[in-house]
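Backbone-to-sequence.
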């Protein structure tokens, strides 16, 4: 019997202890937790930078992000970042998933050659972030039909992205002369922004006053209030800001969240206006 026990002990020493079946699973779980922590840290850092650079009510949100980083970053993203933008996939992913559609639209534009086909191609290029190619497509559409409103609007959006206010003004002016209600005021709003970018402040105020009588874009009302404030008309600025807040408070929750940035900016300016 002692010989058998000794033999078993020597065999165990020779072959080592039995492997732990939970070792790999624990290591994998630890790795996943590490990756998750790194991803959340990246999200937190992104939200913090966004808050510092763009958030009007940055005092409260910075406090939340620092005191309660989890789930503060998630709360800030859901409440402040995502609602104010039409969230899209990254540019490279949109280009990859729509590559067949882009090839088909390009072929249709080359084969048929009408302005409509070039506009469709340009819109798809713009949606996938290919701004240079989109500008070329709209240019070819306008070469076919100089009065094509869709092509003019697309060219204006490309110029707006490229920070070319003179080109934005020219294209939007042609659209508004043909159809003042085109795109339900979006063209008028972009046109007004181009006037501000060109420092034509008096004309911009006049335009936004007309615009806000017809459309109640929160951005347009806020920009009009800014012009009134800069012109020394604090009473008019206050009235426009109060109207903006009233519109936002009476709008559906989804709309109020989407344009929450302008609501916050309006509140901030109201506090800064002289009594």
């Amino acid at each position: 019997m002692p010989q058998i026990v000794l033999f078993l002990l020597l065999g165990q020493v020779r072959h080592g202890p039995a492997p732990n079946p939970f070792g790999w699973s624990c290591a994998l779980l630890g790795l996943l937790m590490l990756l998750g922590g790194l991803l959340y840290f990246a999200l937190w850092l992104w939200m913090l930078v966004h808050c510092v650079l763009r958030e009007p009510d940055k005092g409260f949100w910075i406090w939340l992000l620092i005191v309660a980083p989890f789930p503060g970053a998630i709360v800030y993203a859901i409440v402040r970042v995502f609602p104010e933008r039409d969230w899209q996939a990254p540019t490279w992913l949109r280009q990859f998933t729509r590559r067949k559609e882009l090839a088909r639209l390009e072929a249709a534009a080359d084969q048929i050659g009408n302005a409509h086909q070039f506009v469709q191609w340009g819109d798809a290029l713009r949606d996938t972030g290919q701004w240079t190619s989109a500008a070329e497509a709209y240019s070819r559409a306008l070469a076919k039909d100089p009065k094509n409103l869709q092509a003019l609007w697309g060219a204006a959006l490309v110029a707006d992205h490229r920070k070319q206010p003179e080109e934005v003004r020219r294209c939007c002016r042609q659209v508004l002369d043909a159809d003042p209600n085109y795109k339900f005021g979006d063209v008028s709003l972009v046109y007004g922004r181009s006037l501000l970018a060109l420092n034509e402040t008096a004309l911009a105020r006049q335009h936004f006053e007309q615009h806000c009588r017809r459309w109640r874009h929160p951005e347009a009302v806020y920009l009009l209030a800014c012009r009134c404030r800069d012109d020394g008309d604090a009473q008019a600025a206050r009235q426009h800001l109060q109207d903006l807040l009233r519109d936002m408070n009476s709008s559906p929750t989804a709309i109020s969240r989407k344009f929450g940035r302008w609501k916050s900016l309006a509140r901030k300016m109201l506090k800064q206006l002289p009594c």
